[in-house]
Amino acid sequence: MYIPNYYKNEDIEEVRKFIERHSFGILVNQVAGKLWATHIPLEISQDKNGKDVLHGHISRGNFQWKAFENNDSVLAIFSGAHTYISSSWYDHENVPTWNYIAVHVYGKIKIIEGEQLLNSLRKLVDKYEQSSEKPISVENMSKKYLEREMRGIVGFEIEIEEIQAKYKLSQNRDDTNHENIIKELEKRGDENSLIVAEEMRKHR
What we know:
The protein is α+β, with helices and mostly antiparallel strands and 204 residues long. It contains 5 helices and 7 strands; from the N terminus they run H-E-E-E-E-E-E-H-H-E-H-H. The protein has one domain: Electron Transport, Fmn-binding Protein, Chain A (Pnp Oxidase, Chain A).
């Protein structure tokens, strides 16, 4: 994606944490000459060599997986808070804009099965069940039921080749206008505005 230098974030540890927090992403590839996208949770972890990878699965009825073997290049998109920035908040004439954080991950995808897929499902369920009053786990499911359900999905691992992180947070504004944008966002008070204001302070 297009990223001017002042919006580029190359702090890989911070970007990794962003992906962990905003793991419901969009998986994009090409299927029969047409772009195809699926909205799914994608979990970042490290493989046995200590390299970052993404794990996930899709329904076997989703034809996207059939293109993985012939064209293994994929894009995963992760988005964070975003909000409108009014040009009325500047002390000079300018145009309105939008502040946001977005991460694009490019990589090579391969299908995983058996114990590797099972481990991926365990991690996914354990992560999102943490806040449940009565958490479930893959271990609590019967073997017969689990095997049946696993036949209905296709698991995958994405070997990450490139990460592009865009933190568009008014870094190009002078101190006066930057601070005024933050104050106006805090005054607006909705969740996205407050998060963006906080990120603006953090990345000044």
